[in-house]
């Protein structure tokens, strides 16, 4: 009688649902921004009074938390291979980074190509062939994934190809250094540097009330103000050394995800009582409700600070990864498992492709003026539908070509 092979562990799709929800919410955030920046040929901007998805920019932290968690998970799995362990730390870090580049760079390039074709200054001037050539050539570093370090076109909004791709660039770059740290000395990296930098970087941002995103340039104790196309406020005369806040924001999230990995691995070994699981369920429902409320329609009645929102992100992702509470168990049901898993798999594609598609919708509808102000939903809904369909197509192509797995 043949022995039955053990069933493969079921993927936790609660995380995938959150990733998809946040990707769609980010479309909403940028849709509002694009409408607001649509000029009628003068210096005026027109936008309906709306806060829909305004809080989505803060919950982008969810992507970085999960990325940090799964980076450590990948490291621990490869750690069991003696031959892999014999290799240099830099060699292993480059291998990990190249795998990320392989999975993300082709779609990132597509995102920039769409930007060249669609995006314009205030989204309406006439482009000449020379303008298009200038945009393409001067954005070479962006095509290579170096947007987040500051290596991008300094032409301001005129050359704003696909601004949200800073986030993908930052994940690849910061991921290399953190993975190298894991390979070089896991104990020091996760036991000392990760919590130290996480605590003090978070505290600095909270105390100064500065924004943890790519919209400014942080120097040593100073955050500058903006005009050179970098977002934020550094000028050509700024004689200081520092970092784009996009890198620091992603660093903070990845470190948080790394810390979560070790915390959750310890908690998974613990037996929770029925009352304990009920308690976790209540906390998860409350945190998830507040986070969704803030994301969809911010500011909320509670007027949550962005640092409180960050804590909510950590709570819901931590509980989803722990997979002990009733809400997470409910999401991990057999009926919708495949669907949620698939939606999570296209979430980053949605993020990388939505921005030029939203602008395309605006261009297709015609010039936005004070007399014909577009409603948020008129742009948002078709953008979501087209972006999801396009992302599904891109995933199909990527799986059949670049990401095609070799048969065993």
Notes on the protein architecture:
This protein has 408 residues and is mainly α. It has a domain of 272 residues. The chain is built from 15 helices and three strands. It has a three-stranded antiparallel sheet with strand order 2-1-3. Helix 1 packs parallel to helix 14, helix 2 runs parallel beside helix 11 and helix 4 packs parallel to helix 14. The longest helix has 30 residues. It is globular.
Write the layout of secondary structure elements.
Layout: H1 13-36, H2 61-78, H3 82-86, H4 89-118, H5 129-138, H6 140-143, H7 166-184, H8 186-208, E1 217-219, E2 222-223, E3 242-244, H9 245-268, H10 274-296, H11 306-322, H12 326-331, H13 337-345, H14 347-365, H15 376-400
Antiparallel strand pairs: 1-2, 1-3
Helix pairs in contact: 1-13, 1-14, 1-15, 2-7, 2-9, 2-11, 4-7, 4-14, 7-8, 7-9, 8-9, 9-11, 10-11, 14-15
């Amino acid at each position: 009688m043949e022995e039955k092979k053990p069933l493969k562990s079921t993927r936790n799709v609660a995380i995938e649902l959150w990733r998809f929800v946040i990707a769609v919410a980010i479309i909403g955030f940028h849709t509002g921004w694009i409408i607001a920046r649509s000029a009628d040929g003068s210096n005026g901007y027109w936008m309906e009074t709306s806060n829909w998805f305004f809080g989505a920019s803060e919950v982008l932290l969810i992507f970085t938390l999960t990325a940090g968690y799964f980076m450590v998970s990948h490291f621990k799995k490869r750690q069991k291979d003696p031959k892999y362990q014999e290799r240099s730390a830099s060699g292993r870090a480059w291998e990990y980074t190249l795998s990320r580049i392989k999975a993300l760079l082709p779609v990132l390039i597509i995102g920039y190509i769409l930007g060249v074709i669609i995006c314009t200054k205030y989204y309406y001037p006439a482009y000449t062939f020379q303008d298009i050539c200038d945009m393409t050539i001067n954005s070479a570093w962006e095509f290579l994934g170096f947007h987040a370090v500051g290596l991008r076109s300094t032409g301001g909004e005129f050359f704003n190809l696909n601004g949200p791709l800073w986030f993908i660039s930052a994940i690849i770059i910061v991921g290399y250094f953190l993975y190298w740290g894991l390979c070089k000395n896991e104990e020091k990296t996760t036991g000392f540097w990760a919590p130290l930098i996480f605590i003090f970087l978070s505290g600095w941002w909270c105390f100064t009330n500065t924004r943890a995103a790519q919209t400014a340039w942080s120097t040593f104790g100073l955050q500058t103000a903006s005009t050179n196309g970098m977002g934020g406020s550094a000028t050509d005369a700024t004689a200081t050394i520092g970092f784009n806040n996009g890198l620091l924001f992603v660093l903070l999230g990845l470190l948080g995800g790394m810390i979560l990995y070790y915390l959750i691995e310890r908690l998974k070994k613990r037996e929770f009582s029925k009352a304990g699981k009920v308690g976790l369920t209540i906390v998860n429902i409350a945190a998830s409700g507040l986070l969704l409320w803030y994301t969809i329609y911010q500011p909320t009645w509670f007027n949550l600070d962005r640092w409180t929102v960050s804590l909510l992100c950590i709570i819901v992702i931590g509980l989803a990864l722990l997979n002990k509470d009733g809400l997470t168990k409910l999401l991990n049901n057999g009926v919708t498992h495949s669907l949620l898993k698939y939606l999570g798999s296209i979430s980053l594609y949605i993020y990388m492709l939505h921005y030029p598609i939203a602008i395309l919708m605006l261009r297709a509808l015609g010039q936005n003026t004070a007399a014909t102000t577009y409603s948020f939903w008129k742009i948002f809904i078709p953008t979501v539908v087209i972006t999801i369909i396009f992302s599904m197509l891109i995933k199909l192509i990527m799986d059949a070509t670049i990401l095609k797995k070799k048969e065993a």
